[in-house]
């Protein structure tokens, strides 16, 4: 995994002073690196036999469809409000400085479906936990929450206690 870490550009002071941003675009453009990420996540998730992979807007959309394809599962987009055309279920959740909302089509998850939540990065876990709750609200059984990168110091994994958290690269 050190090889993958070397493919990620570290940008100091972005988006604001004091933040070290892990830019995955340099990994994504490398065909061998991107394949290695998708294959590694697939291998960790395959034994859980998910029916669907939920991708969180926006960068979860990069990884979730590829994972779903490899797993023979469906892909379900989790979006910001008013982006989905049919009837939705929504959940609001707290951010550090306010509230946000996520939506999914009501008919995207059936009772008992085994789902994996996929995103690029685990920071504080707030958006990810909201996505888990949204899937469960529709009757889904969340079998894993999956990330390419985990920022361990922010303790997002603790917020997801009780769920199988899969992350490839830990910082």
Provide structural commentary.
This protein has 171 residues and is of the alpha/beta class. Helices cover 30% and strands 35% of the residues. Helix 3 crosses helix 4. The longest helix has 15 residues. The N and C termini lie close together (12 Å).
Question: What are its keywords?
Answer:
171 residues; 5-stranded parallel sheet; 6 helices; globular
What's the arrangement of secondary structure elements?
Blueprint: H1 2-6, E1 9-12, E2 20-23, H2 25-28, H3 31-45, E3 52-56, H4 60-71, E4 74-78, E5 88-95, E6 98-105, E7 114-122, H5 126-137, E8 141-150, H6 156-159, E9 165-170
Parallel strand pairs: 3-4, 3-7, 7-8, 8-9
Antiparallel strand pairs: 1-2, 5-6
Helix pairs in contact: 3-4
Short description:
The protein has 171 residues and is an alpha/beta fold. It has 6 helices and 9 strands. Helix 3 (31-45) crosses helix 4 (60-71).
Element pattern in H and E: HEEHHEHEEEEHEHE
Unreliable stretches: none
- CA radius of gyration: 16 Å
Strand content: 25-35%
Structure classification: alpha/beta
Annotation field: number of helices: 6
Shape: globular
Q: Kindly report the spatial arrangement of strands forming the biggest sheet.
A: 4-3-7-8-9
Assembly context of the chains? single chain
- Quick check: average pLDDT? 96
């Amino acid at each position: 995994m050190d090889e993958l870490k070397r493919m990620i550009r570290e940008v100091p002071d972005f988006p604001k002073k004091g933040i070290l941003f892990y830019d995955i675009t340099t990994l994504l453009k490398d065909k061998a690196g991107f394949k290695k990420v998708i294959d590694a996540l697939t291998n960790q998730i395959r034994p859980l036999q998910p029916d669907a992979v939920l991708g969180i807007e926006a960068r979860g959309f990069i990884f979730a469809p590829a994972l779903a394809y490899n797993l023979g599962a469906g892909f379900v987009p989790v979006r910001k409000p008013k982006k989905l055309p049919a009837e939705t279920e929504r959940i609001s959740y707290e951010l550090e400085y306010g509230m946000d909302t996520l939506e999914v089509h009501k008919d995207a998850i059936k009772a008992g479906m085994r789902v994996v939540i996929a995103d690029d990065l685990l920071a504080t876990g707030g958006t990810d936990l909201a996505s888990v709750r949204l899937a469960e609200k529709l009757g889904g059984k969340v079998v894993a929450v999956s990330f390419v990168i985990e920022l361990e110091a922010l303790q997002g994994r603790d917020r997801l206690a009780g769920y199988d958290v899969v992350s490839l690269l830990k910082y």
